[in-house]
DNA sequence: GATATCTTGTCACTAAGTGACCCGATCATG
DNA sequence: CATGATCGGGTCACTTAGTGACAAGATATC
């Protein structure tokens, strides 16, 4: 099965699962229900996900893939601040994917549902690994380097906190405006990463 | 049930569970086996733990409680570096608890067992919350402050990476000596936290 | 010593997740 | 076009993690 198709199918399942989790709670949602909602047999669900909670993972991941891919395309001669600002504003004209709202809802649910919280943490564990190669690459350090791993962990952690914060704010609907200004968001993310890495990750490389 | 007794019981269960996980793998260890090993009924196990994997949590936690409690007792007028160095050397004369080795083994297992990795991440999620109040308190910031949460997240993340690194090194037995020098360990931890918080957390407060 | 509370054991039960086998589609090869 | 190999998915039986309900023993309080 092509990686593409598999990923799309997982995302499709994830959307339905996340919707059900949000509407009726995690405990009240069975694997059978998820399967019925997406039109597959229950057995097939377990072929693609380890547990019913982990069905939420692709949707959660979807909330940060753009940021991660932006990090990956970060050119060496630019500062992270500039890069994120230009790219985020460029992208922001496109319609924001519906999944993002779902992802925020899952993060919200993760506050009270331990099983979902583990999924959320595992997703950011994945982000941390990606950060590891991105940062290691940028700093010209060997792959398993301890310093690089700490930078990546700290960076992923602050992004996670920021993500949760923004998600909570958007969901409550209180302060929606400050997060529609993409350059401001870019600056906050870039600043957080730079701070969390002691200033090592964020600037341009001569 | 007193908090003390409950914690001790959980730890006792956790020790047996961790031992079994290490000896025969997580999948091959059943709740019944854990119960039998500790001399309780299976039902009682589920009264104290949500899942069999989470039985490993207290042992994992035990690996960082000393550091967390040291952070909590960190006086404002001292630098983290000094405080950790003096306290760690003072403590290092006491026999190192046997649980630490078990904790390292669990972290090792977490590399290949996703279910255990979630437990490990959840344990550090707890550490992050503790860090949150410690750091928020030290910086005289309100409880839910975003900056404080990011500092706490970054600090917990680097400690986690350091812990995994040290654990792996000790388990392979390759370089045991560099981690018996407690002042060196203290310096590394303190330096990592200071870096991850952009230099904000680590120094003495006038 | 009587009683209320609290923890555990027993047992029946639900549901998450797996293994084994089959079926239809797709695709390569003759 | 025929054929067979591979692959994704369905069906069904089965294991086991985890829960609810109730009984029983321990413990504390008066």
UniProtKB/TrEMBL annotation, chains A, B:
Residues 30-49 bind DNA. Pfam families: TetR_N. InterPro entries: Homeodomain-like_sf, HTH-type_TetR-like_transc_reg, HTH_TetR. Residues 7-67 form the HTH tetR-type domain. Coiled coil: none annotated. Keywords: DNA-binding, Transcription, Transcription regulation. The keyword DNA-binding applies. The keyword Transcription applies. One of its GO terms (molecular function) is DNA-binding transcription factor activity. This is AcrR family transcriptional regulator. The lineage of its organism: Bacteria, Bacillati, Actinomycetota, Actinomycetes, Kitasatosporales.
């Amino acid at each position: 099965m092509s990686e593409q198709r598999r990923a799309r199918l997982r995302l499709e399942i994830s959307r339905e699962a996340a919707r059900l989790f949000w509407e009726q709670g995690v405990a009240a949602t069975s694997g059978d229900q998820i399967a019925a909602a997406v039109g597959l047999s229950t057995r097939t669900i377990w072929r693609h996900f380890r547990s019913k909670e982990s069905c939420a993972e692709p949707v959660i991941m979807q909330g940060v893939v753009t940021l991660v891919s932006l990090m990956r395309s970060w050119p060496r001669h630019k500062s992270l601040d500039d890069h994120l600002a230009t790219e985020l504003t460029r992208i922001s004209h496109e319609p924001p994917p519906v999944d993002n709202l779902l992802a925020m809802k899952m993060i919200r649910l993760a506050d009270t549902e331990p099983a979902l919280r583990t999924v959320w943490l595992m997703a950011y564990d994945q982000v941390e690994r990606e950060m590891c190669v991105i940062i290691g690459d940028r700093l010209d350090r060997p792959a398993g380097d301890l310093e690089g791993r700490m930078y990546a962990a700290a960076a992923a952690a602050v992004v996670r906190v920021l993500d949760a914060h923004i998600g909570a704010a958007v969901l409550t609907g209180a302060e929606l405006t400050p997060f529609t200004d993409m350059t401001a968001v870019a600056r906050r993310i870039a600043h957080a990463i730079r701070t969390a890495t002691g200033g090592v990750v964020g600037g341009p490389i001569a």
